[in-house]
Amino acid sequence: MRSLFRYKDIIYYRTLAGLKSEARKNYLGYVWFLLEPLMSTGVLYFAMSHLTGQKGASALMTILLGMITWQWLEGSVMLSAGSIAAKFHVHQQVPLPKYLFPLVDIGANTIRFAFAFVIVLAACFSAGFQPGPTLLWLPVLLGLQLALIIGLSLIVSIGVTLVSDLHLLLQSLFRLLFFVSGIFFTAERVPAHLLPYFYANPMAVLIESYRAVILGGRAPDFPQLGTVAATAGALLLTGSLIQAYFDKRLLKLTNV
What we know:
By secondary structure, the protein is mainly α. The chain has twelve helices and no strands.
């Protein structure tokens, strides 16, 4: 934590610089941060409404909440996976801790997510879903997901740097998890005997919790959130230990 506090300004300014650079590359700038999940949601809504017959604001917002929270996780982890290898020229010149680079990518993607999430919340309330006291759970859910993202990113950023083929494996794994995390369906559609496996996925729990809090006006399932918190804590601890072990060894192990 002392090291993180020491380099907080680097993380802050590199995050802002990355956002500005990405926005300048596109004519629509920051609008793309919201437009991408909206387009994906539109495709899924069109397909699922014809397959299941579920239409209207409720079905649309159900998919949109799943999509935008999933893209926060997938986008952050996939960006972080190659963040260290992409900055080897910096490592050779300045002995910065390796964890700074995935944290910068997570910070940039989290700001993009926050921009889109606020608009999605406004859209939910405009569609008739009433804000209530259960919204006080939102900081807890967002904090748990951020911890999950950071823990995963600390691990995969080292793994992909050591074995580049892991990046392709990671893409395949996220593609699989996309279809089993409840992004375009709810837990009610999962057979009872498969529910324990469904809720073993931390993202399935978080997506269901977001929907309960925002669309249903209900508190999330506390024991399930406890499991997510334990998983996120284990990933954070593991990621921190891996980063500490490989920080001074990484350049030699990769022959750079």
